[in-house]
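WARN  no MSA supplied for this record, continuing single-sequence
INFO  ligand: nicotinamide-adenine-dinucleotide
INFO  echoing inputs
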Amino acid sequence: MTWNTKLVINGKLVAGEGAEITVDSPATGKPILALNQASLVQVDEAVMAARSAFDSGVWADGAERRDVLLRLADLLEAHQEEIGAAIIDEVGTPKNLIAPLQIGVPLAALRYYAAMADRDHTRDLGPDQNSAMPSASIVRQVPVGVVAAITAYNYPVLMMGLKIAPALAAGCTVVVLPSPQAPLATLLFGKLLKEAGVPDGVVNIIVGGADVGAALTEHPEVDKISFTGSVGVGRAVMQQAAKTIKGVVLELGGKSASIILPDADLPSVLGPVHLRYVRNAGQGCASPTRILVHESKMEEFISLSQAFFPSIKVGDPWDEDTVSGPLISEAHRARVEGYVERAVASGGHIVAGGGRPNIDGGWYMNPTLIAGVSNEDEICRDELFGPVGVVLPYRDIEEAITIANDSYLGLAAAIFGPTEDAKRVAAKLRVGSVYINGGGAMRMDAPMGGFKQSGIGREYGEESLREYLEPQHIQWASS
Ligand code: NAD
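INFO  complex generated
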């Protein structure tokens, strides 16, 4: 692998001038490489490059934006092996998730939003003759300006694509900040910008930690922030944004429920129920980790789960059969294991899986299913971001809905059972997305985002494009 350790500022690949950071391989626990993060001067340079590019009008032509986005998509597709490999190495994502999610979604995003890049969104309101002052009006939609696009470590290129594709299509310029834990795939993507014909300054990529993130989000020349990450950092980002009153899109954590309706066929839903939250070692925002099972089916569910868990392959992310790879860091695995230990210490028990696999090196843990806890316990309140599910009994469907909604988060939910019954339950859930019987592939045209503290705003769909547009009303007096 030929890595790129250079940032992209104003169309140039430049070495970071800030502190050195090391990117580790979660699968081996060993360093992949070291690079220098952006200095605070370079943060300013990246923002000012985006500002100048925006103000110069170099990105104002919709047809050109469409063509450039399509070329970027073609180049990402052509380089998917290399960029996918970087994601496997730095995130530990199992290989079988690369094509459908880690690369497939940003590819689809670039093409989907390219088709919107030359749309004229202007609404002609026509004359207002009823007033004492006759007038006519149009409402334009203008790009919001310079966007800071900050991504979490777990799906780096996917999240970058979901931010830059609609922002660029809308006519904005961007500064991308990937997680310092997994910046390498994003930096490889940065090498494609020139070839795609992205004008200098339109897309800048910098790397850094909280200090760089704070400098970027507080910068007065950044007009909008699109952030994906934890609730805690999302809160900090909102406070930082408040200093210069800029808008935020926040895609934050989840503690999603998986409701198994009383009439569901347990043997057939068991795989989808468990596989959905153990993939990527549980490091997925919408992972449905609170599994609600009718009390009459609890025993059967647990015994089926015990038979199923040994079939979930944990191990080397490069192995095509691996379902659950390593967690991102030793510290993160210790955090997840701490939740499991405290749940057990306070009366819960591990009913399937548990512990660590017998693998040398790397930050692996086995998928774990816990029973005997209550929805009030911390393991049911906090997002763990690991391959750990809890199973909770319910007496009737109303109680299942109450438990599912009893969370300060509201990102997603899964429901298994007869579709029409499930749709009625879905309508009562306070979450941004509901997937019935596994749902389907990610749809570019359907919005995703959180209720409650899971976030503000939406990604995917036309909703996401609107996050990067400001309405402007132009009214003129008429006779
Ligand atoms: P994180 O919140 O620790 O970090 C996210 C990003 O914020 C990183 O790039 C980090 O460097 C940056 N950052 C840190 N401090 C900052 C600051 N003060 N200002 C600006 N930026 C700052 O999250 P993580 O550990 O990388 O990712 C896991 C979290 O992301 C989970 O909570 C998960 O649910 C969430 N997530 C949400 C979605 C979604 O679509 N809702 C998708 C994926 C991940």
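Residues 189 and 397 are 47 Å apart (CA to CA).
INFO  checksum written, moving to next record
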